[in-house]
Design brief:
Blueprint lengths: L1 H21 L6 H8 L3 H6 L3 H14 L2 H5 L2 H16 L11 H17 L2 H7 L1 H30 L15 H21 L9 H10 L5 E4 L9 H4 L6 E2 L4 E2 L9 H5 L5 E4 L9 H25 L33 H7 L5 H5 L5 E3 L9 E3 L12 H5 L10 H4 L2 E8 L5 H4 L6 H5 L5 E5 L9 E5 L9 H5 L8 E11 L1
Antiparallel strand pairs: 1-4, 2-3, 5-6, 7-10, 8-9
Helix pairs in contact: 1-2, 1-14, 4-14, 6-9, 6-10, 7-8, 7-11, 9-10
Length: 492
């Protein structure tokens, strides 16, 4: 029963989080974004004390059930391990833990967080690795499949599907995502939960609590026949059947050992319970299963939040080349570049959710994979707050559309040599017409000649840095207006 409940709940979390990254319509995040907020590292960075407390109680009660139910990267490894198990049964064996490696990786992770080296943090964080894989590899494939269905629907005069752009957000991040997926597949295929028990910093921290958990996998030495079935089916390699011991710091409570034992020598029980095979034991298992299901449902219910429905679109125009910005642009709600650098885990959820194609992973080595803004494919519409609603780590604080219209994330800068009024001597005014806050006024190029072509004059005190002017500017390949970011956002 324990294993069946674990698989059911793991399937729900994995499917929900996967769809959260794959969805490009902006509808599923209203129902599923709470799942991202139950991730351990993100909850710590967001100072979500409710989720942190629930995860701590869950681990102290049930063991490292988080790693096999809530963490999508852990579930993905189980899928890879299951494929390997179908190829060869009884493929695992007990091996001694490597605490020096685990704690070394945790120390590196903590030092990187303290030093603000985001690229190292994002490479080691489990949810970030899962997000990269889903956003950079599987979401484009999902969109391609959608476009194929849209083509078929069009032939039948149906609007059930519509075509969307599929584009490369960042080649370096895509390469990292592919390498991460290959590494996880190889490790899980060969050794099950090798990544969780050697590299993952979240797993290492949870292992400290799991040693003290109330319910554990326990041996009944009198019933054990030393058949080694439990060790050969333990994906965490933590069961030593010869000494009848379990390394609880590595056990993820998957329940595979309980199912593989044919002699009833293993039980999931507390420290004063003895393993039993009577009807009383079966009742206790049912109670523990109910406790597990209740705890998981409570975690989900406490973490869930309702989001306000917003959406935006964009017009398709000719591609542009991104300008060299002196200061990168970070999304409204991120407060400052420093807040983004210290809290963002680079999970790519905001990038995959952005309906205006403004966000993309940074290619800066120090902050690799953290989101930055650019306006070649769209602009940051004042009514859209989706990135702030889905961020689980507090790197982008939740804001509403009214508040967003008052946040100055940057300011527009006029580059006269690129303006068509200067290069072609024609009237334009696109930037002034499309500015949502009226920060641009058209003035004569020659102040002494009222008949000269008009060029934009920017009121920096009113500009919010949304990029509408840069996006609609007809100058190619570089716009005549470039938005420079602010290190610290301002409220107008």
């Amino acid at each position: 029963m324990l294993r069946k409940i674990r698989i059911l709940l793991a399937t729900v979390f994995f499917a929900g989080l996967s769809l959260l990254f794959l969805d490009f319509t902006g509808t599923l995040h209203h129902w599923l974004s709470w799942m991202a907020k139950t991730q351990a590292l993100e909850a710590v960075l967001a100072l979500n004390v409710v989720v942190i407390g629930l995860l701590a109680v869950l681990t102290l009660t049930l063991g490292r059930i988080y790693c096999s139910v809530i963490c999508p990267l852990g579930v993905l490894q189980d899928v890879f391990g299951w494929l390997g198990k179908r190829h060869k049964e009884n493929r695992y064996s007990y091996s001694a833990g490597l605490p020096w490696l685990r704690y070394s990786m945790l120390a590196i992770f903590l030092v990187a967080m303290a030093a603000g080296i985001g690229s190292v943090v994002q490479l080691l964080a489990p949810y970030s690795a899962f997000g990269r894989i889903m956003a950079m590899i599987f979401q484009p494939l999902w969109k391609v499949g959608n476009n194929i269905l849209a083509s078929f629907a069009e032939t039948m005069d149906s609007y059930a599907f519509y075509s969307v752009d599929v584009w490369m957000k960042s080649m370096p991040v895509l390469i990292i995502a592919v390498l991460t997926l290959v590494l996880l597949f190889v490790l899980a295929w060969r050794g099950g939960r090798t990544y969780c028990n050697t590299i993952c910093p979240v797993g290492t921290v949870l292992s400290l609590l799991a040693r003290l958990s109330w319910l554990k996998i326990r041996f009944d030495a009198e019933k054990c026949r030393n058949c080694s079935a439990c060790s050969k089916n333990c994906k965490a390699a933590c069961i030593d059947y010869k000494t009848h011991t379990v390394d609880y710091s590595r056990c993820v409570v998957c329940g595979d050992c309980l199912e593989s034992c044919k002699f009833g020598a293993l039980s999931y029980s507390n420290s004063w319970q003895k393993a039993e095979t009577s009807q009383t034991a079966a009742t206790d298992v049912g109670k523990r299963s109910f406790l597990l299901a209740t705890a998981m449902a409570t975690t989900a219910a406490m973490a869930q939040k309702k989001d306000k429905l917003v959406d935006g679109g964009l017009a398709t125009i000719e591609k542009k080349v991104a300008p060299e910005r002196q200061t990168p642009l970070t999304p409204p709600g991120s407060l400052s570049a420093k807040n983004m650098q210290t809290r963002c885990t680079g999970c790519q959820l905001c990038v995959s959710e952005c309906p205006n194609q403004v966000l993309r992973p940074s290619t800066d080595l120090l902050h690799l994979m953290q989101p930055v803004m650019s306006y070649e494919r769209g602009y940051c519409r004042p009514e859209c707050t989706r990135c702030s609603q889905v961020c689980p780590a507090g790197a982008i604080k939740p804001i509403d559309d009214i508040e967003k219209s008052s946040i100055q994330i940057g300011h527009a800068v006029f580059i006269q040599k690129n303006c068509v009024a200067v290069t072609d001597g024609v009237e334009c005014g696109n930037c002034a017409r499309h500015c949502p806050v009226g920060a641009i006024e058209m003035v004569p190029l020659d102040a002494d000649d009222d008949l000269s072509p008009s060029v934009p004059a920017i009121n920096e005190s009113r500009c919010i840095g949304c990029g509408a002017c840069e996006y609609v500017c007809p100058s190619r390949p570089f716009s005549a207006i470039c938005v420079e970011g602010h290190e610290v956002h301002k409220m107008l």
